Write the structure tokens for this entry.
Amino acid sequence: MEQGILSSDEASAIPMIKLISEQVVGSPSRPNEKIFFSSPADPIDSDLSTLYHQKTLESMLSDTGFDPEPINEGMAVIYSELADNNFTGLGVSFGAGMTNICLSYYAVPVMKFSIARGGDYIDKQAAQATGTPVDKITSIKEEDFSIDFTTDVGGVEGALSIYYENLLDYVIENISAEVDEEDIEEDLDVPVVVTGGTSSPDGFEDLFEQHLKDVDIPFSISDVQSVDDPLYSVGRGALVAARSEEESAQGTTASANEE
């Protein structure tokens, strides 16, 4: 994977992802069992296209006997975490290659897009600033790193904190720029859920909430929430979406039989 999608530079990318997906999903319990898989939206700040990535994964899952359907990664976060809020809110998934954003109103996405920056961007920028190898930066970031602007000035953790803040500002600025006021219900008050591996460090949620207050957006934020297992939030959301669609289809079939 590169920049959040299948790498075009790795000859083994497709065989490896195919093997991984087969091991993860197993076999369907019945013919054409529904399966949802997350897919990033096309980034608004890059000419990168996610279509080939999405269609390739869809073909792989079809070959295993499932009936696959893509779900936007940000929308999957909303399915996973905002059931108690009628699937209304802003889901932000901070991945390694991309950040995916979706604003949903009663399970209907009114805004969805991605940004071609994530954890890899932070690692590369911090490595360049400190002269430290990228793999060492990544290791430090993933080992109990906390966002802190008062310690390690000039060091790796200080650089990581700076570029975390830089990423958050960039994401929030793009959210503000992309929101279409005509699509937003008046007096809408929504929760925000942040998830994904890049959102794991202590202090991330508070920093995001702090910077979100400084931007002009046409709806109010009730609170900013993090999740206990940010690496699995998108997967849970895809499962919720698949089960919801199956239940809806079964209900439709039962009504038709009764008639």
Summary: The chain has eight helices and seven strands. The mean pLDDT is 89. The first strand starts at residue 33 and ends at 39.
